[in-house]
Amino acid sequence: MNIFRAYINGFRLTMRNHKMLFFLYAVNILTALILVVPFFQTLKIAANNTVEIESLLTGFDFNFFVDLAQTSAQKFLNIFSSLKWIVLVYWLLSIFFLGGIIKVFNKDKFSWRAFFVGSFKYFLRFLFISLIFLILQVLLFLMIWIPFVLATGVTKDLITNEQNLFIIAGILIIFHGILSVTLQMASDYSKYYLVFENKNIFRAILSGFGFVSRNYYKTFSIFIVNQIVPVFAFYIYFNLSRDITTQTIVGIVIMFIIQQIYIFCRIIFKTWRYASEYEYFTYLFLKNARIKASRMIFENIEVKTAETIRQWQDNRRKSENNQ
Amino acid sequence: MKNYIKYFIFISLIVQTSHLFSQHSFTKQSARIANYDIKVELNTETKTLIGSQLLKWTNSSPDTISELQFHLYMNAFKNQNSTFMIESFFTSSAFDSQTYEDQWGWIEIINLQIDSSVDLSATCKYLYTEAGNKDDQTVMACPVRKILPNQTVDIKIDYIVKLPQAIARTGYYYDYFFIAQWFPKIGVLEYKGIRNAEKTKWNCHQYHYNSEFYANFGVYNVEITVPNEYYVGASGFLYKKKYNANNTKTLSYKAEDVIDFTWVASKKFIEFERVWKGTIVKVLILPEHINLANRHINAAIKAIDYFESVVGEYPYPNITIVDVPLDASQFGSMEYPTLISTLSVSFIPFWIKTPEQITIHEFGHNYFMATLANNEAEEPWLDEGFASYHEANIMQQNYPSVSFLGYNFETFDILRANYTLSDDKQIAPINNKSWEFPLFSYNVLTYSKAAIVLKTLENLVGEETMIEINRTYYERWKFNHPTAKNFIDIVNEIVKQKNDSTLGENMNWFFDQTIYHTYICDYELNTISNKAISRGVTQALSEFGFNWGILPEEINYAYESSVTLSQKGEMTMPVEILIHFESGEEIVEYWNGKDATKTFYYSGLTKILWAKIDYTDKILLDINKNNNSYTTEPSVVPVVKYSSKFLFALQNIIHFFGMLI
Ligand SMILES: [Zn+2]
Question: What is the DSSP string of B468-529?
Answer without folding.
Answer: HHHHHHHHHHTTB---HHHHHHHHHHHHHHHT-GGG-S-SHHHHHHHTSS---B-EEEEEEE
